[in-house]
Amino acid sequence: MRKGETKNLEVDGEIVPCSYIGKGMFCTAYRHGERVYLRCVGDYSKECISMFCSKLKHIPHITRHSSAWSDEGSDRQLFSMPFYHKLTKKEFPVAYAQWLTLPSIILSYDEASRYVDSEQNNTPESVREAIRELIDAFCNYDIDSMLLEFNRANVGVDNDGVLILRDCLASRKSIEAKRK
Q: At what angle do helices 125-138 and 45-52 cross, to 10 degrees?
């Protein structure tokens, strides 16, 4: 499928015409207006965020939907979240500066816990609080498998210019299973 091509998705019993955005390791993304729909297979990070994360300002507001597509297989799920803008230095200088304070390496649970509690950390407290929330949420799944990655493709910016940790949470076990 090509970027911008239209596909009808069944969402909570209704047909929603969406434009194809792209595909990652676990999710295929489609946009309808100001919502992005994610068809996810074999990953539970979106489910984790939708179920256990509060509405902190740096965490995406993810909603789980019912769909005939997701009902076909136990590891297939449909989610949506608001559309978040691409992070650029020119358009979003404050969010960009916050992003630069985040580690450029992939963090395990222990590393992430030490990072958010470090006194030498210059990441704003509101972003650190969101990272703590992600860590706590993943405890409900498989803490030994948790990974956090803050590359620019994994973050976004909302309409108010707030940095959003859009797709920073992952499962090492899911990644390894996908690569087999």
A: 110
Q: What is the pLDDT of residue 5?
A: 92
CA separation for the pair 81, 40 (Å, rounded): 13
Give the integer Cα–Cα distance in Å for 105 and 150: 8
Q: H/E element holding 133?
A: helix 125-138
Gap between the Cα atoms of 115 and 161, Å rounded: 24
Tokens encoding 155: 């973050």
- Say which residues have a Cβ less than 8 Å from residue 94's Cβ, sequence separation at least 6: 161, 163
- Alpha-carbon 47 to chain mean position: 10
d(CA 26, CA 39): 8
What global pTM score does this model have? 0.87
